[in-house]
Amino acid sequence: VRPDHPVMLDAYERRIQIWGDVELAWRLNERSGLPTPKWLCLTGTNGKTTTVGMVDSILKAAGKKSIQVGNVGMPIVYAIADDEPYEFFAVELSSFQLHWTYSMSPYASVVLNIAEDHVDWHGSFDGYKADKARVYEHTQVACIFNTDHVDTLRMVENADVIEGARAIGFSSTEMPAVSMLGLAEDILVDRAFLKNRYNEAYELAVLQDLAPAPGKMPAKHTVENALAAAALCRAADIDPKAVGAGLRSFKTGAHRNQLVGYANDIMWVNDSKATNPHAANASMSGYPSLVWIAGGLSKGVEYDELIAAHAKRLKAVLIIGTDTAALKSALANHAPQVPTYNMTAAVADSSDGIAVMNAAVAKAAELAHPGDTVLMAPASASMDQFKNYAVRGDAFANAVAAQLADS
Question: Fewest 10 Å CB contacts: which of 106, 231, 239, 272?
């Protein structure tokens, strides 16, 4: 429900408090009189669900009783009412949930990244950022931020936290300084949560632990997600060995940079969850040579920056969807040398998403060569040809399975 909905405006006028489900859960959590789990909370424009899954995997590797809640997994109010003696909640929070949250006090918190999204709901990009920043309020132990996204540092600097809470940075692009997690060559290291952090570091994992396929390197955003998850868990004093074990055992969820096929040194990757250019940018950055399946319901976004950034890695583009003018224009302006195929026009019924996806996968099989990645990261919403992004992702995965079985 939007903040400017008449019911909400009436409540404001009457000075009636408005709570979201997270606020209600926190208040129940505080008043139960029972031992309460530690809340490890995260938000961001992209990568939330992958990261919260990594957190939960690490906690379970450490032998902790944990559960994924909030914007994914069990509704958080149900988890509070559950009889299970949870030690930890791995809490994914959307900007919508955070807007209506006031008193929550995370044990540790992180904003993974920030890019323009949901401006129609929040009223402005500044409004969106302000709601994301609420995750840091009242944090008890560690406010974790991405040093490559300066806005996340500003959020930490402006947060009203519990006295003693530390600011902990992470970066996938630089050697970690003191009170940071980052990369030392191909090793994920912790220089934040140890006494002698000025002279030592804990080894947590290596890049190959995060690789999508044998001999392949993980994408930058995968490394960032892993470092954020590690930082949340290290803030809770989880053993470094358990961090590595949890990252190695973690499997990416469906539709989020998911490897659905690998044959003849060609990877087939389903990132149907990439419903905006920022999310698609994260996926595309991880692969050097792409046959890209893209398009759908654009929601009025622009693609120029995305295409300009990745034109050199595009081998071919297969366009799906019915709202494709902005994508086609960006390709013509910034990647005119890249062959482009309109797969929607190749089928009799343009609204038949399954037929369009089957045609796109068949064409991709013709175009891809060893070393390429066929990436379905549409940078658009799905509702023009599919019920939702999950149905779109399943259509891609099924088409790939059929294609590889026939080849």
Answer: 239
